[in-house]
């Protein structure tokens, strides 16, 4: 299991029976491969699928069956298809239980930037804003630092904000944080990660939760 798969597997353990779950682009798409066998969830894609399955093997890819990020997917028995208007009506109507999103940055209040880098051309915010505002719970999955070693959990966002709504849980390769009214609370460290390392690589201030624990190995 590589680092991104570890993050996805840890996020999958947050899902419960009957959850309707939207998976964002990047690490979140890997969550579909780590959903516990004893948990039944319904994966939603904003391009119009409910019932997305695990990532297909290369020999079983259907080029016409993709998620919102244009990545090949499988579908489970009983899945349904619909237009984008109906899909976004589900999101805006509060029918998505959990959204799992990737980010560029997270600030000390749990607000995220995940759709634009200043100076680079982008098509728009996509469904991220709707998912933040319409989902009952939002989980972030991300590497803790950038390729340059800079913290992605910052005091203040320097990239365009996606929504004023704070996320509920942040899962990185180093740690897990919950988001409360008074800011970020560290609840878990990944295996082999010290509190000192997490503090050194986190720009934003955070509290240490009373339930804080060192992480255990996450398995599929």
TrEMBL record:
Keywords, ordered alphabetically: Transferase
Family to which this protein belongs: Belongs to the 3-oxoacid CoA-transferase subunit B family.
InterPro entries listed in its UniProt record: 3-oxoacid_CoA-transf_B (IPR012791), CoA_trans_fam_I (IPR004165), CoA_transf_AS (IPR004164), NagB/RpiA_transferase-like (IPR037171)
Lineage, top ranks: Bacteria, Bacillati, Bacillota, Bacilli, Bacillales
NCBIfam families, per the entry: pcaJ_scoB_fam
Pfam families reported for this sequence: CoA_trans (PF01144)
PROSITE patterns: COA_TRANSF_2
Domain of life: Bacteria
Entry protein name: 3-oxoacid CoA-transferase subunit B
Coiled-coil features, chain-numbered ranges: none
